[in-house]
Amino acid sequence: MMLYDQVEQRLQNSTELSELTQVLHILLNGDFAVWEDGSLYSIRQLVSRFDGLKVEIFSREHSPPHFHVKGGDVDVSFSIDNCELIEGKLDGRRTALIQFWHSRCKDKLIDFWNATRPDGCPVGIIRA
Q1: What DSSP designation does 125 have?
Q2: Which residues contact 124 (CB under 8 A, 6 or more apart)?
């Protein structure tokens, strides 16, 4: 169940004002936004964080489908399809390491991307 589905369920099942207030706290302090149709979505999906390094996939994103790698002096974006460097600068050694990593986990990155696409997303799911 997606996090925003859990929020909707908690709102429907709440019987006390304090429970409703807890949900509002989650919404205001989380990475949420509301589509034009009134549906809730997560602004971003944090894929992983380790020792200052983050790999992120955002839910409302521009084409092509891609992932971000950030941490230290690294701030780059790569295409999920072919691991082409889209944005940022990185030396050849680290680019090759990210491409090696991507080649081993591309299917999982596609799964993460597809799982974060809310209805009406301008960049849809990746079809294999």
Answers
A1: P
A2: 117
Q: Is the pTM of this model over 0.85?
A: no
> Is 1 a residue whose pLDDT tops 60?
no
What is the spatial distance between Cα 51 and Cα 3, in angstroms, rounded to a whole number? 25
The enclosing H or E element of 108 equals helix 92-115
pLDDT of residue 34: 77
Enclosing H/E stretch for 54: strand 53-58
Residue ranges covered by each domain of the chain: 3-30, 44-115
With tokens 């955002």, the residue in question is 58
Structural tokens at position 88: 């940022």
Task: Tell me the average pLDDT across 5-34.
Answer: 82
